[in-house]
Design a protein that fits this description.
- The protein is built from 10 helices and 17 strands.
- It is of the alpha/beta class and about 375 residues long.
- The longest helix has 17 residues.
- It is globular.
- The chain starts with a helix and ends in a 5-residue tail after the last helix.
- It comes from Citrus sinensis (Sweet orange).
- This is Ribose-phosphate pyrophosphokinase 5.
């Protein structure tokens, strides 16, 4: 299985564009992380900067390509570890920035270095606490705009309020559009997002949006596992995720597809009704863009076990992990829960079945391509055929 899948993930495009981007040079630097990121394998298994996704011509490790001084990367307080990994991958230092809260909760931001005429990337997922992190991002954008930055790109690994992307009942707000307007009006010139809840959210922005998917990172990890392709079935936890699961299944040697039919009784409450497809005696891989309270995916896993599934894996890009998600995910329903680090997971939420993969390579390479005005429209970064 590993050899079959690995060949499927050997991307022929590799990284030949590196030689064609004129703004890069051959100067190489050693990347030293002062303090090891606290992702060593305590209870969970964690993979950082070790994806085969970018191994072809781009050496991951201590030698990184250093770009010109017109590129700046700043981190908000939402996920500084991911920001450090991105900067390390790119061979750059994070920009110096001062962020603090006043006694009344107001946010203060001051750039500690000049960004005049620079291409600035602000890394800030709008994860919980969503309102705090969104406001912090807006103030960061405003600070860069007033400091005469040439271009400001909001790098949002997880876009909060993405689920409020349409009206399902009368007199509801479409908060995703509101947040998009706020980011645009604050002064951002571009947005880089990872695994938006729905592709239509890109249309809410009046500025360019680069949308990348975290699923290739998960697929690359699954390729290393000794699972027979004949035993594999990909499961969508709801009808709305069928397109995502189908694209995922195609990458797994065109594995069969099953669908969990659920009926939602209210927000964050799900009730599983039945299963469409055959999972008896198979290894079921459940795929979703995010895990919030884990109600949908845990009830789906229970149904899969009832229908005779041998093992159940949960794969998701965004680990929101609102209570009681940890209790549900660690209850023994899952052989492994595979997520990425778009949202930081505190150590107290670690459990033995948890595996955290890093998207720093993915985001770092996309930042290079945006800065160098290269296309990012090739498969590992921008398209799984689900838009």
């Amino acid at each position: 299985m590993a050899s079959i899948l690995h060949s499927a993930f050997t991307y022929s495009t590799s990284l030949s564009f590196i030689c064609n981007c004129s703004k890069r040079n051959s100067f190489r630097v050693r990347c030293n992380v002062i303090e090891p990121l606290k992702y060593d394998n305590g209870p969970p298994c964690i993979s950082i900067l070790n994806n085969n996704l970018l191994d072809s011509k781009f050496h991951l490790g201590n030698t990184m390509i250093k770009n010109d001084t017109r590129l700046r990367i700043f981190s908000g307080t939402a996920n500084p570890a991911l920001s450090q990994e991105i900067a390390c991958y790119m061979g750059l230092d994070l920009g110096k920035i001062k962020i603090k809260r006043f006694a009344d909760g107001e946010i203060y931001v001051q750039l500690q270095e000049s960004v005049r005429g620079c291409d600035v990337f602000l890394v800030q997922p709008t994860c919980p606490p969503a309102n705090e992190n969104i406001m912090e991002l807006l103030v960061m954008i405003d600070a860069c705009r007033r400091a005469s930055a040439k271009n400001i790109t909001a790098v949002i690994p997880y876009f909060g309020y993405a689920r409020a992307d349409r009206k399902t009942q009368g007199r509801e707000s479409i908060a995703a559009k509101l947040v998009a307007n706020l980011i645009t009006e604050a002064g951002a010139n571009r947005v880089l997002a990872c695994d938006l809840h729905s592709g239509q959210s890109m249309g809410y922005f009046d500025i360019p949006v680069d949308h990348v998917y975290g699923q290739p990172v998960i697929l690359d990890y699954l390729a290393s596992k000794a699972i027979s392709s004949d035993d594999l079935v990909v499961v969508s936890p709801d009808v709305g995720g069928v397109a995502r699961a189908r694209a995922f299944a195609k990458k797994l040697s065109d594995a069969p597809l099953a669908i969990v039919d659920k009926r939602r009784q209210g927000h964050n409450v799900a009730e599983v009704m039945n299963l469409i497809g055959d999972v008896k005696g198979k290894v079921a891989v459940m795929v979703d863009d995010m895990i919030d309270t884990a109600g949908t995916i845990s009830k789906g896993a229970a149904l899969l076990h009832q229908e005779g599934a041998r093992e159940v894996y949960a794969c998701s890009t965004h680990a929101v992990f609102s209570p009681p998600a940890i209790e549900r995910l660690s209850s023994g329903l899952f052989q492994e829960v595979i997520i990425t680090n778009t949202i930081p997971v505190s150590e107290r939420n670690y459990f033995p079945q948890l595996t955290i993969l890093s998207v720093a390579n993915l985001l770092g390479e996309t930042i290079w391509r945006v800065h160098d005005d290269c296309s990012d429209g090739y498969e590992p970064y921008s398209s799984l055929g689900i838009d």
